[in-house]
TrEMBL record:
tRNA processing recorded as keyword: no
Protein name: DNA-binding Lrp family transcriptional regulator
Leader sequence residues: none
Pfam families (alphabetical): AsnC_trans_reg (PF01037)
GO molecular function: sequence-specific DNA binding
GO cellular component: cytosol
Domain of life: Bacteria
Domain Transcription regulator AsnC/Lrp ligand binding: 8-77
Keywords of the record: DNA-binding
Species in which this protein is naturally found: Naumannella cuiyingiana
InterPro entries for the chain: Dimeric_a/b-barrel, Tscrpt_reg_AsnC/Lrp_C
Length: 91
């Protein structure tokens, strides 16, 4: 499983509609509307790297209202359980 985190800059007047369309794409597991320098954070989970291109470049980027994207590929996943263990002081 390959996970990509996609930062989406969207037409501000269309953020809810853009988010709904992105959420409906195969391979997209979560879409967050966020504060700060970007408008949406999208989690894409697919079987291989080629599938990321299919989701992001071939479909997500073509949604009307998407202005720009920046895609980050995750190397490793840490669950909250793993993080608690990593920072535990040996209670």
């Amino acid at each position: 499983m390959v996970t990509a985190i996609v930062f989406v800059h969207a037409d501000v007047a269309r953020i809810p509609e853009v988010a709904e369309q992105i959420a409906g794409l195969d391979g997209v597991t979560e879409v967050y509307s966020v504060t700060g320098g970007i408008d949406l954070i999208v989690l894409v989970r697919v079987r291989n790297h080629d599938d990321i291109a299919a989701v992001v470049a071939d479909r997500l980027n073509k949604i009307d209202g998407v202005v720009r994207t920046e895609t980050h590929i995750a190397f490793r996943t840490y669950s909250s359980h793993d993080l608690e263990a990593a920072f535990s002081l040996g209670d």
